[in-house]
Design goal:
It is built from 12 helices and 10 strands. With 335 residues, the chain is α/β, with parallel strands linked by helices. The protein folds into 2 domains: 8-214, Spore Coat Polysaccharide Biosynthesis Protein SpsA, Chain A; 234-333. The radius of gyration is 21 Å and the shape is globular.
């Protein structure tokens, strides 16, 4: 193993995860990276179960764990609280219901130092509640790959890249006062990532799947199957962030405009295919605006070469008769 002299701060936001927190934290404590260079900051975001007590027990057991307790403010608020006290040269994040392989941070840091990179990304896999492996959301590269920030932005807009900060080591100096996670929203990683990429020198993507995403029902962005009217706010946030991305692209990367427009159309399609029929009402102003924007852009949608024929068909139909198409779609899927 190479000798390391860079400190890493790992920030873990935790809210009501008493059954999962210990597995997550122990996977970070058990890294083969030097313990004196690994600072673990766990932020209890106002949990109402036994999370706070478990965290305090872990902090009493391991010298490199810092326990932070704060009022509930959401994942972004907890991450920002961790950033405010982080001392590492590089920063990593782990969601409290996920876990990581022992070699993750040593592998990331070796590449960061060797290539002088501001940001290095490991690959991930997806684990179901029953422990089975789910299909990959992001396909790992065949070998170590170095790309420009603009190239990474393009992969994100094509839904091929990974916007998560959890799979990455990022130079702490990039987290300036104006580069923090947006509070009160989901899809926060994407928002911060597209802005931070403007400051990154390059991005290294590694093929090893050392970050393990655990899918549990009822988490922020995952729909509870038993609740037909449940509509996670992430679906509104992804539409808003698509508009933010389009403005950023038009200002800084005009060559990606068609790709960014495609991204916005796909996010709106995702919104319209998930919104419960009961919420497709004239007094739902956000829904009304989504439908209006699709209708207004029907010609541009048909001309966009980055959209598939299936996506174009759905968007046209949803633009013309959103409620009828949504009812049919729900009936076909048995929802």
């Amino acid at each position: 193993m190479p000798e390391f002299d860079h400190k890493i701060s790992v920030i873990i936001p935790a809210y009501n995860v008493e059954g999962l927190l210990e597995k997550c934290v122990i996977s970070v404590v058990s890294q083969d990276y030097p313990k004196d260079l690994l600072e673990i900051i766990v932020v209890d975001d106002g949990s109402t179960d036994g999370t706070a007590g478990i965290l305090d027990d872990l902090a009493g057991k391991y010298d490199n764990i810092k326990a932070v307790h704060k009022a509930n403010g959401g994942s972004s608020s907890a991450r920002n609280a961790g950033l405010s006290i982080a001392n590492g040269d590089y920063v990593g994040f782990v969601d409290s219901d996920d876990f990581i392989s022992p070699q993750m941070y040593s592998t990331l840091m070796e590449a960061a130092v060797r290539l002088g990179s501001d940001m290095v990304q490991i690959s991930r896999d997806e684990i179901a509640e029953d422990g089975s492996k789910l299909p990959d959301v992001v396909i790992p590269p065949a070998k170590e790959t170095v790309i420009t920030p603009t190239e990474h932005l393009e992969t994100l807009l094509l839904h091929k890249g990974d916007a998560s900060f959890c799979t990455k080591l990022t130079r702490r100096s990039l987290f300036t006062d104006d580069m923090r996670f947006p509070e009160g929203e989901l899809n926060e990683d994407f928002y911060l990532m597209i802005h931070m990429l403007e400051k990154v020198n390059n991005l290294v993507i590694l093929p090893q799947q050392y970050y393990h995403v655990f899918y549990r029902s009822g988490s922020n962005s995952r729909k509870k199957k038993e609740d037909r009217d449940y509509f996670p706010s992430v679906f509104t946030d992804i539409v808003r962030n698509a508009d933010v991305a389009l403005k950023l692209v038009r200002d800084n990367h005009p060559q990606l405009t068609s790709v960014a427009e495609r991204f916005g159309y796909v996010q709106r399609l995702d919104y319209l295919l998930h919104i419960p029929v009961s919420k497709m009402a004239p007094d739902n102003s956000f829904y009304v605006q989504v439908v209006k924007s699709v209708r207004k852009d029907l010609f541009k949608i048909m001309q966009n070469s980055y959209l598939t024929g299936r996506q174009k068909t759905y968007l046209v139909l949803l633009g013309i008769a959103p409620k009828a198409v949504r009812k049919t779609h729900a009936r076909i899927r048995g929802l």
